[in-house]
From TrEMBL:
Residues 16-330 form the Enoyl reductase (ER) domain. This is PIG3 family NAD(P)H quinone oxidoreductase. Pfam families: ADH_N, ADH_zinc_N. GO terms for molecular function: NADPH binding; oxidoreductase activity, acting on NAD(P)H.
Length: 332
């Protein structure tokens, strides 16, 4: 098999910790009629990668690849027979249905976004999951608008840093929780108004103090069950709790009478299980609403660190340490 027909890729033969990640040589994928094959130059880590590696994540039925990685940036190297908008040689970034931890992966044509002039592959790879999630959760599900308020948990995460900037861009007051004093300082630098280190204070009490007893309109939560009761307590009348992660518990106790009497809403969201048409629509909204803001520098991807593909185990260990601020990127 010629070298142009194969690629290096990260595989997981037996689920486990970072040591389960190995580099192997695999056949390069062949694009379908409406797919691009992208020569990957950068791929971002996400928490679902950790779950998939450990065997705790069930792939959606439309997964293009069982390999890890859901957002990449690179150069188009081949296109399917029905593709008209893209040609080999163009620089693109976007969400993919798996396969991002490899030298080449498939991308649906409707999910591809041109890399802006002057952007690096690392900047581009750090953008789509964070900003698509922030827009879809805060604005589409949460209805966040100017003059309202939001609490962003895990404010120093890749998605958290995007949520802070998206909320500020629409004119909302932004509060946050983080895991360290350094992350607290950096979230304030992104435009947030106030926050707490979660091990040092009760965030619900802090929110009620900041809002003079009212509570916030929206909460962006990655924690799950462990924070459920406090999240509901921190919401205002008619407020929305947006569950976009379940890092600390699939179940939680709460006084449901408060949900009824205060007209609270609990909504969940994940991008990966969406249908292809829905993902294309998500990409279109991102491209129209946030790509101009990103190009103008009014919001930006926050990058913690980069690792060569050969050090993918170290990259996973770094994410699992919770020491990162922003996105962790693999460079190929």
């Amino acid at each position: 098999m010629r070298t142009t027909e194969v690629m290096r890729a990260v595989v997981v033969r037996t689920p486990g910790g970072p040591e389960a990640l190995d580099l192997e040589t695999l056949p390069r994928p062949v694009p379908g009629p409406r797919q691009l094959r992208v020569r990957v130059h950068a791929s971002a880590l996400n928490r679902t990668d950790m779950l998939q590696r450990a065997g705790g994540y069930v792939l959606p039925p439309d997964a293009a690849s069982p390999l890890l990685g859901v957002e990449v940036a690179g150069v188009v190297e081949a296109v399917g027979e029905a593709v008209r908008e893209w040609v080999p040689g163009q620089r693109v970034f976007g969400l993919v249905n798996g396969g991002g931890y490899a030298e080449a992966c498939l991308m649906e044509e409707g999910m591809a976004v041109p890399i802006p002039e002057g952007w690096s592959f690392v900047e581009a790879a750090a953008t789509p999951e964070a900003y698509c999630t922030a827009h879809e959760s805060l604005l589409e599900l949460g209805g966040l608008r100017e003059g309202q308020s939001v609490l962003v948990h895990a404010g120093g995460s890749g998605i958290g840093t995007a949520c802070i900037q998206v909320a500020r861009a629409v004119g909302a007051r932004v509060f946050f929780t983080v895991g360290s004093e350094e992350k607290h300082r950096r979230c304030l630098g992104l435009g947030a108004e106030a926050g707490v280190v979660r091990t040092q204070a009760d965030f619900a009490a802090a929110v009620l103090e900041w809002t003079h007893g009212r509570g916030v309109d929206v909460i962006e939560d990655f924690v799950g069950g462990a924070a459920l009761e406090r999240n509901l307590r921190a919401l205002c009348f008619g407020g929305s709790l947006l569950l976009v992660g379940l890092l600390d518990g699939l179940r939680g106790d709460a006084d449901l009478k408060q949900v009824v009497l205060r007209r609270l809403q609990i909504k969940g969201m994940a991008l990966r299980p969406l249908s292809l048409d829905e993902k294309v629509a998500v990409t279109k909204r991102f491209r129209e609403r946030w790509l101009p803001e990103l190009v103008a520098g009014r919001v930006r991807p926050v990058i913690d660190s980069t690792f060569p593909l050969e050090r993918v185990r170290d990259a996973h260990r770094h994410m699992e340490s919770n020491a990162s601020f922003g996105k962790i990127i693999l460079e190929l």
